[in-house]
Design brief:
Strand content: 15-25%
CATH superfamily of the domain at 144-314: Glucose Permease (Domain IIA)
CATH topology of the domain at 144-314: Glucose Permease (Domain IIA)
Distance between the termini: 151 Å
Number of strands: 15
CATH class of the domain at 144-314: Mainly Beta
Number of helices: 5
Mean pLDDT: 72
CATH architecture of the domain at 144-314: Distorted Sandwich
Structural class: alpha+beta
Shape: elongated
């Protein structure tokens, strides 16, 4: 039997290059020791990731789909009409969209708006992007001469054409009779050179008489309005739904009436001649836009109306 030898424990190394870690099943894994620098770094808390500086809200990009503000409510004032409201407030879709949004309140005729009516205004027209090239100049706004008026003694009319559907007229010079025809053989002229937008006796339940008591001539604001014949001024001033009006008594006993004028240039008792300026057209009183409301009456009072077109034609005036 061999002699028992002494087992010598191997000398431990002062600096072990590995660390024995007990693993599953007793196996040991040797992990390298980190150097002093690594250990120091491991001991230090992790540095928070860099955060990009926040831009001021005014400089941050707007969301792709900005939340649209609730529609505003607009109250109609004298002289308003749909195309004017849409243009002044840059409404998307123009007067057609404004009318469609308020058809229940306005009714079947887009010309029928009256002071005090509440309109819901939709979205404004989108402004061009800041980096986009400047848009081409917008076309000139359609002349307001095509707008028809709501009538006297009512809050509007039912069968008149829409404002932008009226025929265009040649520009007229305010304060002059440019383009006016010479008086007929009977000494009569048309009050303005524009065409007729609303005929006589157009039916409407909202009129005091149940129908249109005169004709509406197309006339932009500031158009010269002429006396259709010689006579004496019997009324000149404010007349409620007619706004500023002039009434002239003619030699044959008939009266001509001119409504919604923006200014007056004659006074009661004054004699006038055919074609003489008596004022400028406008949209005063119960009116949805600039035009001239013209009547022929057998007396000075409302309700004695006859066809103004037939009367002027009987005097040799071509209309």
């Amino acid at each position: 039997m061999p002699a028992k030898g002494k087992h010598r424990r191997p000398k431990s190394r002062s600096l072990s290059r590995g660390l024995a870690v007990a693993g599953t099943g007793g196996a040991a894994l040797a992990l390298p020791l980190m150097g002093a620098a690594g250990a120091s770094a491991a001991a230090a808390p992790a540095t928070a990731p860099a955060v990009a500086p926040q831009l001021p809200l005014s400089l941050q990009a707007a969301p792709a789909a900005a939340v649209q503000a609730a529609p505003a409510v607009y109250t109609v004032v004298p002289g308003d009409y749909l195309s004017k409201i849409a243009a002044e407030r840059h409404l998307s879709g123009g007067w057609e969209k404004l009318y469609a949004d308020n058809r229940k309140a306005v009714g079947t005729n887009p010309s029928l708006i009256h002071p005090g009516l509440k309109l819901t205004l939709g979205a404004k027209a989108e402004a061009p992007a800041e980096a986009a090239p400047a848009p081409a100049p917008a076309p000139a706004e359609r002349s307001s001469t095509g707008s028809s008026a709501s009538d006297e003694g009512s809050s509007g009319e039912q069968d008149a054409p829409a404002p932008v559907q009226q025929p265009k007229q040649k520009p007229q010079s305010s304060g002059s009779a440019t383009g006016a025809k010479a008086p007929s053989a009977a000494g009569f002229v048309a009050p303005v050179s524009g065409g007729i937008s609303t005929q006589y006796k157009v039916a409407g339940a909202m009129w005091s008489s149940g129908y249109h008591t005169g004709v509406d001539f197309i006339a932009s604001s500031g158009t010269t309005v002429k006396a259709v014949g010689a006579g004496t001024v019997v009324s000149s001033g404010w007349a409620g739904a007619y706004g500023n009006e002039v009434i002239i008594k003619h030699a044959d006993g008939h009266y001509s009436q001119y409504g919604h004028l923006s200014s007056l240039s004659v006074s009661v008792g004054q004699s006038v001649t055919a074609g003489q300026s008596i004022g400028l057209s406008g949209s005063t009183g119960n009116s949805t836009g600039p035009h001239l409301h013209f009547e022929i009456r057998t007396t000075q009072s409302y309700g004695s109306d006859i066809s103004p077109v037939n009367y002027l034609r009987s005097k040799g005036v071509t209309i």
